[in-house]
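Now for a typical sample entry:
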Amino acid sequence: MPGRDTTPTTGPAAAVAAGSDTTGPRPAPPTPKERLGSIEAAVHLGFAVLLVASVVRYVMRHSPADNLVVLGLAAAACLLYAVVALLPLRDRHPAPWMVALVAVWAVLVVAAPSFAWCSFALFFLCRSVLRGAASYVLAGAITLATAAGLFRLGNGTDVAMLLGPVAVGVMLTLIYDRIQHDAEEQRRLHAEVSLAQGQLAASERRAGTIAERERVSREIHDTVTQGLASSLLLLEAADRAWPGAAAQEDLHQATRLLRTNLAETRSLVHELASPGLESTPLPEALLLAARQYVPGATLTVTGRPGPVPPEVRHALLRVAQSAAANIALHASATVAALTVGFLPDAVTLDIYDDGTGFDPAAAAPPSSAGGYGLRAMRQRVEQLGGVFSVQSAPGEGTIVAAQLPLEGGK
């Protein structure tokens, strides 16, 4: 049914119309495919059904002489309706054609109130193809024409026929405005959500890249860098003692360490775990990892050994390797002892040496010369929810301690 009166300068509908012009850029109009699949198709079908029914009703109730003019107006209105409905699909302005349609329709509905039911379809067509004040003015014209036709049908005595279309038109206008506002708000929110999702995905990609770089950095430090540094020390010692028996032993140990280091590098490249350690029970694997750098390392196990998650096992192996490499490179120790403790909900690893020790608070920050070991160990442990600590002092040795939680611990 039609909208409000022809001067929409006050009232809720006019307020909505004014507000809709100041809320910023309008959403992009629907594409032709969207239009054909929308509710407008049902409106067009409804217009065709109502028009045919109105024509049949009028022809059955009036003489052929009266039919000629009315049927001509109905045909013109039908043609204009089709033009208005198709113009938006071709990105053309339908306003002049809509004005012509409303004018023809107003004459038709006043002359033959039987066609008043088609006003519903005209109202929705007007609101869908026009925006702003023009849609309200033409909807008001449809309302007034329908009210006039029905009032004439009641012989000018039935006030309900006059006020009914106006009331229905106002209600439909308010309802349509609310639906349109909600749809625009939904599109705006959808655009914001899509933008936020894109930003979140980009942020996650950046975070993932940084985390992967940190992980690869730790792996390289705990395997390739430590192994090469230890091999270099052994080769330098062999060079100084050559050709004595000690030199040959250092050379053999450096060769073994380089072979192990080569296997670690291949394992890292192929994203595999440390060769020869993953299938070994954790205490023995930790001792083997430490003895790659400190052959005289010892092991003590407390508690009852149990299953350990792969990520926890891997972290403990790397901590043992890195701590043992530091002992070999810096500590000048005579004793290196590992203690593995199995608790109900955690596993602990303590690595002690009686070497020169150092001041943890005064340790040099990471640089091209080194200094990544302690930071890498701490990151490994804390990323798994564990606790990492270093106790040391000059001349008093060092204790590196790590405690990692076990999933499903009781």
Notes: The radius of gyration is 43 Å. Confidence is low (pLDDT under 50) at residues 1-28, 31-37, 270-275. The chain is about 65% helix and 10% strand.
